Structures are given as C-alpha cells and as structure tokens.
Amino acid sequence: MNKIGIVLEGGAMRGMFTAGVLDVLMENKITFDGAIGVSAGAVFGCNLKSGQIGRAIRYNLHFSGDWRYCSMKSLLKTGDIFGKDFCYRELPFALDIFDTDAIRKNPMEFYVVATDVETGKGGYRRITTGEGADMLWLRASASMPLVSRPVRIRDRYFLDGGIADPIPLRSFEMLGYPKNVVVLTQPDTYRKQKVKNLPVIKAALRRYPAFIERIEDRHLRYNAQTEYVRRREAEGAVFAIRPDYPLGIGSTERDPRELLRVYLHGREVMRRELPGLLSFIIESKAENA
Questions:
Q1: I need a surface site. Which of 43, 107, 223, 268 has the fewest CB within 10 A?
Q2: What is the average per-residue pLDDT within 81-85?
Q3: Cα 125–Cα 159–Cα 118 angle in degrees, nearest 5
Q4: How far apart are CA 140 and CA 285, in angstroms?
Q5: Contact 47/56 with Cβ under 8 angstroms?
Q6: Pairing relation of β-strands 156-160 and 109-116?
C-alpha cells in the first residue's frame, strides 16, 4: 500500500508559516502515515506527532522576549543563540510540556534530518519518544551554523539539517513514501543564491572542510530540490503548500507581531488549499484500493 507523507522544510522563524499550516491540518483531523522535518520543520513539526494544536505559536509568543529562549545574550553566555537548556529541557518538560506519551502512541512515523559536520552528509533519525536522543536530534537539526555549537550524538557531531538535505522529498520517497504533501517556507518564485558570508563560515568552521563544502554548494542543491518538488507536483505525486509571498521574517525574529503574522499566513494558505489537499489524499488512497 502506498503511504502518504508530509515533508516539512526548515527556515528558522519562517517555520511559523509551517506551524500555521500544521495547526489547520490537525484541527481538520488530517493525518499522515509519516512525516519528515528539517530544522524548524523538525522542532515545530514534532507537534504534529504529539497532536498539540497551537503549541508552537503559543510558546513562541510567550517566550519570544526571554533571553534564554533566543538572544545574543544567550549566544555569548552559552554558545547557542537558542538556549540549549531552556529550549530543549525547561521549555518542553516544565513550561509548555511536550506530550511524549502522545508521541509514543501516535503510529505516524516522524523523521528528522541533521548534518554530520565531519562528513557533510545527512543523518536521519526516527523520533519515537520525544526524549533523550530524540531531543538531541531535534536540537541538532535546528542548530544554525555560526550561532550554534555542534551537537554531539554518541561519537558524531551534527548541525542544521538544511545544509545536507533542505527539502528531503527524495529521501522520504526512498523511505517508502511515494505520495507526499510538501510544506515549503519560500514562495514558488524563490531561488536561493550563493552564501555571502562564506569567509566567516570558513574561519569559524575550518575544522570541518566537508561541512563547508556543503554550505558552498547549498544553493545549487536547494534549487535542484525545489525543482524536483515542482516535477513531482506536475506528476501528481506531490501536493505543495507555499507562502504567497516572501515572508520577510528574520531567522531569530523576536517580535511577537511578526511571529503571529507569519503563523496566520500559514493558516490562511492552508485553509484555502484544504479542498485541493483533501482531493489529493482521496485520490492517493484510491490508487491503493
């Protein structure tokens, strides 16, 4: 039987768009056999696995002004612009509790992507409990170069999954998901350009030449992946959800008005696309009959 999945692009605080999309999906009780998330698509998308409608926008609005959540002060004091202890321990397990019991019970497969800094290759982890190593993988996937320390997982070190596999549609198809909804955080007209601060990156990450190479050609890989999404969309294998325009939000945006604006646009787009999505799901399931 063909499985239907959902692929969640990253994009730091552009991920508020994805949070809006996912909340509308959950409100309408639309489920998937599996999901894969990268960076913000992982840390916001994991709420799809736990079934927690509104959690991502709620804690972002509530803690956006807290230096422990995201700030230059956090970067200077801890080495991570998104505070490791606050974001991945105190917040999910004490302040806005991540429902790990629901994670365990939900049969939907949920994968996250992180980039091995020594090889430059993607690492893929299936999230089953939301605790322990699962939380390390979520943190690694969303750890942006230059403003985050590499995350040690066993004997390997990882950073931002978007470096190795920014839109992991092909990877998810290889895992057995031939039909997919793909949630992007850039409009259809977007084409990624070569990174501008490469000298700074090379100086900061000189111990990891393979990782630097992946950053150097990231724009080529990203643009090829968006083109692959379009091709699969034309073939009827993908239903893509994109913002209507460039979201214009910073990677570490802390203004709650901006966070809410992008979240609400995600909700708006998903509500509009809901009939088409339902038709896509019905047709995909009919192919399995």
A1: 107
A2: 96
A3: 95
A4: 34
A5: yes
A6: antiparallel
